[in-house]
Write the structure tokens for this entry.
Amino acid sequence: MVMGLRRPSASRGAPLPGADPSETAAGEARIGTLQLALSLLVLTAGVVLLDAFTGDGLPLIPLMIVLPALASVFCTVRQTTGVAVWVTLVVVGSQLASTGAFWDVFLLLGFTALACGLGVAACAARIRHATEVARLRSAAVALQRQILRPLPVLTRQVSAYGLYEPIEEDRFVGGDIYEVVQSPHGTRVIIGDVQGKGLPAIGVGFAALGAFREAAVREADLTAVAGAVEDAVVRHNAFSAETGEADRFVTALLLGFDDGDRVRCVNCGHLPPLLLHDGRTSTVTLHRTSVPLGMADLSDEPRTAEWLGLPPGGALMVYTDGVTEARDAAGAFYPLDERLQEWAADEPGEVLRALQADLQQFSGGVRRDDIAVLVLSRQAPARGSLTGSTLK
């Protein structure tokens, strides 16, 4: 949301610049005014004709009082008010020539006015509620976008393209995390998977990302960056324990890119990366794997880093287990290595689009876990640029 000064003469109903489109759409009509008027005229004519044929024994015109309630679901307050006024006029007109008892006519007119008023009030309440929900969703999206930046991200050393799909469709952020940071020590990358799902997992992921962003710039050693993230996860678990939540850990892969032809790697219980080079795909063997972040107290071995080769024109694909553990209708796991061979020679964006479509088809649209994939290559832009945009 963007807030600013507004002249007193400005319309109070005008949307603010930068307002979420869904917030504006909440008060818009779902049916055109002309279409509504024509439908109302045709319906009224039909009811009047049927009422004339049935006679006094079965009056049908009073049944039109349900129209404002129906209009309140699809129309604006102004349209619903117009329907309510029209129905009131039709019912009143039909009763002017009535020879019925005074109290019968009076009660019918009173009930019509009440039903029409309730229809208008229901329409106003629906629009107000929809606007509030849209406003809250807009704020939630803005906050969640601060957790995970849009992709791709281009740094002085790396072009990072990515695919991110949380399992919960009403959220933009799940338990998988990633970040790409330009630092004085080169480009630092993290991809991780928080144990569990839901808001508690998002909280742990946010704590890990915050620590990584700070330590990636401050620490010269990549293992020290991993240690800072470890401490953040432990502190978050200690804080969460006070509210009765269980401890959580994060499997993660930390990568450090400099201007050379090798990549520094610290593996914290995560899946090994894949190398895309010369149209082929191969799994990168990691010789030093430590426990996940948040579980360092369970191991006596310190975290260590190792060097990975990244030949010119090659790219590293790092991913979470939401990809490899996707299943088809028969329960078979997704064969990532096999499928990736078909697209290994494509550009990173094309590889990710093909992977996304193939995963959707393979699983039949049923996701069992969050999905995060990064394709990291040295086809970097000019030195000094750092940009981000959303992969379509």
